[in-house]
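Q: Sequence in, structure out?
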Amino acid sequence: MPQPQAIAIDTVALDDASSAIVILDQTRLPSETVTLRLTDQEAIWQAIRTLQVRGAPAIGVTAAMGLYLAAKSFAAETDDLGAFWERFRAAKAFLATARPTAVNLFWALDRMENAAIACAATSPRDIAACLFAEATAIRDEDIVACAAIGAHGLALVQPGDGILTHCNAGRLAAVRYGTALAPIYVGLERGVSFRVFVDETRPLLQGARLTAYELHALGIDATLICDNMASQVMQNGWVQAVFVGCDRLAMNGDACNKVGTSGLAILAQHYGIPFYVFAPVSTIDPKASGGGEIPIEERSGGEIAEMWYKSRMAPAGMRIYNPAFDVTDHALISAIVTERGVLRPPYTDTIPALLEREGR
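A: Exactly. Output:
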């Protein structure tokens, strides 16, 4: 039985007094609730790389806090601005190598560097103080943004609707609320309920281990299905909307999300079911005109052949292709839900207009 108290824990938190990032270790769920204290750059990098912390918003918050802790450490060791900046930029470059696809990682690191430059401080300690404020702001803004995404998304569905979701875009993917699950949680707060169908999400089972964990712990009507059962569930008439998150959104509306998402979009179009992508504005990549420009992370074949089995289930030496993400064509997306509202096609108009309003 899931432990509801784990759902009350913020996915990412900063313990500044101890110079530590406190995360809920998602690789141990659902069987164990374990928090980790990350105090050095290597541990923070490993936590992002190995999915102990995951989800685009949570990765961004973790990176911001990690870069702040690096700056704090450097400032305690040197008063030389030149030496500080050299070490700061090396730490930023190192954290940026943890994962290649989720744009929030790079967005948060760039925002932290820009904040450090803008504060025009005359000492490393003053720069570190500016970075503490910026990392805290990124965390707080994530909570507010996800709640707003939930409110906007709630208006797209009716009470009692069946919602199918893929991977985990809930509380565990952000600080709180999440993105694609945010309407379900906002609905819960307002007394509105839904039936949720949860793809297990091969090969890392983020749906089975994490989304199902969240929903079940909160008493939400949820049913776990294998990924290849989605068509049958749609055919049964049980699904009125598909809600998915997003790790990087191109300027034309192409959405990069956990592998398997594009197949769901094709199924939804076939059955006439609206397909909604939930993404904070920070997930938009102004440098990517289309999905073909988004780098797709490839992970170890062991995640497919060995990870969940007592003994290897595929022949030794078998070639394995394990992309972590795929790109859903903008033509398959009914709407994109952001904290600033719901974007509709043509996305080549609505996305640039949103970024212009945001000053990006």
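The radius of gyration is 20 Å.
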